[in-house]
Each structure stands twice: as structure tokens, then as C-alpha cells.
Amino acid sequence: MSVPRSLDGFDVAAAVARMLDQPMLWWQAVGLFVEHFADWELAWRESAGDHAQEQKKVHALRSAAANVGATALVEAAAALEDQLLKCQAGQATSVQESLRQDLRASFRQTWLSAEEALKVSKPDPEGRV
Question: pTM value?
Fold first, then answer.
């Protein structure tokens, strides 16, 4: 099965190219992203206030988003992660709430786009498309 020509918030072509031009690998990665990050927002909210724990959660999301080509989510996660790292290094005392709001909105949009793409494509349970 082919990959979508466009998917809101994603650079699908670049992600598939990084995966040796094998659409099946991209679909598998998207499936893992949707499954693994289904409860991410709740766990992330619970980590707020602990800069180190929040940074780990945001970094994991950023890495997974980069893997599947979710460019807008990568940018939002990078901005928050950078601020959290500054807080940990003593270069800042707090995190701008707008960075969290941007990440929350980008995450929700990206995750829903990925989930919908999977529903429409209906890859089999073993990841074959």
C-alpha cells in the first residue's frame, strides 16, 4: 500500500525516504507512534513541574515524531525541550506556558492525523500494508 501524498503536519516523503523508500516501514512506525503515544499527554501533564522528567517525556515525543516525519510536532517539542534544558542548567527559572500550549495543540493534531491515516489505510496487525 502506498503512503498518503499529504498528511497534515507530516513530511511523509522525507520520512519514507529515510526508511529506505519502504512505505511498509513508515506505516509500521506510524502504528507504533499512535500506539505508544496514545496516553502520552496525560503522562506529560503529570511530569509538569519536574523539568528533568518533563524534558525526558518531550524528548521521547520529539524523537518519535522525527522518525515518522511529523515536522510541526518536532518543532514544537524542540522549543519546549530547549526551554526545559535551560531551566535545568539554571539559565531560566520557568517555562513559558505558551510553549506547552503549542506542543499540546501540535501533539493532538499530529496524533489524530496519524490515527486517522491508519484507520483509512487499514494495514494488517503484523504491519504489512
Answer: 0.90
Tens-place pLDDT, residues 22-75: 999 999 999 999 999 999 999 999 998 899 999 999 999 999 999 999 999 999
C-alpha cell belonging to residue 94: 520557568
Please count the CA atoms within 13 angstroms of the CA of 2 that sit on its side-chain side. Answer: 5
CA distances from 86 to 94, 103, 108 (A): 9, 17, 25
Question: Is 83:37 a contact under the CB 8 Å cutoff?
Answer: no
**Sequence-ordered alpha helix ranges (H) in the chain:** 12-18, 23-36, 40-47, 51-68, 71-88, 97-121
Positive/negative CA dihedral, 108, 109, 111, 116 = positive
In the chain, what are the domains?
12-121 (1.20.120)
